[in-house]
Design the sequence.
């Protein structure tokens, strides 16, 4: 019985946390531009998400909802970074263009995106409120859900980063590469707009 509930929760977590959003769009983009050098951004994102999931489990989402400006401030901070990232991707050199030094992603920028991303709080809150995995012990139930969500985020996000890295390694014509950069940048902007509204 518990194993069925855990598998159902795992499937729900994978679908919800693995669906494209600002974090995944950012992973694709930084992977495309920086290759595996963007692992520090990935690690920062995972740390931020783990804290966001944990904060939701202890009731921070309820506190944030009581102070609407706090959620709006988090959304604006996240959106600001994502728009900046989209501009860097859209203007990244292509083909044999001379390489300029674009702003590099960092552990801190990934962490800020992970912890300031309202989608992470909302997604985990909905998963936390879903089926019970451990009867008669809410703390263990929340801890198990947190652990599953952290593991799912680590796995699905490394897959999305790998896709971005593969795009970097693909041999593309400069015009195709430019179009791809614009598509990635537009995806980030669109995901950001959708997260804001």
Sequence:
């Amino acid at each position: 019985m518990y194993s069925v509930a855990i598998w159902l929760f795992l499937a729900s977590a994978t679908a919800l946390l693995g669906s494209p959003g600002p974090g995944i769009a950012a992973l694709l983009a930084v992977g495309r531009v920086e290759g595996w050098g963007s692992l520090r951004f990935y690690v920062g994102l995972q740390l931020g998400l783990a804290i966001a999931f944990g904060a939701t489990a202890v009731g921070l989402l309820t506190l944030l909802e009581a102070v609407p400006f706090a959620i709006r401030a988090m959304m604006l901070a996240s959106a600001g970074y994502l728009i900046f990232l989209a501009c860097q991707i859209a203007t990244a050199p292509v083909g044999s263009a001379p390489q300029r030094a674009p702003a590099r992603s960092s552990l801190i920028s990934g962490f800020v995106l992970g912890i300031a991303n309202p989608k992470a709080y909302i997604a985990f809150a909905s998963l936390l409120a879903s089926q019970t995995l451990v009867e008669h012990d809410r703390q263990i139930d929340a801890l198990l859900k947190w652990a599953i969500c952290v593991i799912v985020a680590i796995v699905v996000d490394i897959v999305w980063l790998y896709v971005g890295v593969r795009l970097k390694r693909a041999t593309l014509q400069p015009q195709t590469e430019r179009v791809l950069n614009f598509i990635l940048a537009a995806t980030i902007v669109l995901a950001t707009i959708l997260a804001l509204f």
User: Anything to note?
Assistant: Confidence is low (pLDDT under 50) at residues 96-102. Residues 15 and 117 are 18 Å apart (CA to CA).
